[in-house]
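Support reply, case 0932

Customer input (verbatim):
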Amino acid sequence: MDLTILIELVQKFGYFSMFLFNWLLLFGLPIPNEVAASFTGVLTEIKDFNPFYAFISAYLGLVSATFFAYTIGRLLGPRLINRLNRTRLNKPIDAFSKYLERRGNIAIGLSFFLPGFRWAMPYVVGANQFPLKLFLKYSILPSFIWMMIYFQLGRTFPYAYKLMLDNLQLFLISLSLLIVSIFVIRYLIIQWKLKKRTS
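Our regenerated output:
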């Protein structure tokens, strides 16, 4: 992982850089979220940055990026969903929308701890016109906990955090794939049972 871009941002913008590199991830900054959050914690140990201000800057970057993604999903997503509803994907989309209505709090909260989900969930939730109040309610605390975990990891292990993150990433990606597999299998079983009843 090349952190040159983060170091350059820190040298130019100080605390604001911590906001920036947690916000720019939304636009494809080629660094995992976990690295950006942990690196903020590292900076408080190896440079003269106040941990409180550093954390707040990073957290505001994450929250504003998440809100921005939700807004894009809300504005542009319905058109895409309408198009997809005319394809074979209409049943999975409908099933996910219903799941979001019933278990939105769990889906949104859990997404922050799973690579890939964290990036995609705000767009999907916005596209499904999930109420903003509820989205904020279910995302503020999990995003705070997520940021605190990685920020503290960087502070506690400033010289070994990258190695720890690599191992943690592997575990979280495996967990994400397992969760997706469970949802797909469950969906296929439900569809199979429905077909059996109608035939």
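We compared this against your earlier run and they match. Two observations from our side: The chain has a mean pLDDT of 77. The CA atoms of residues 114 and 179 lie 10 Å apart. Please reopen the case if you see a mismatch on your end.
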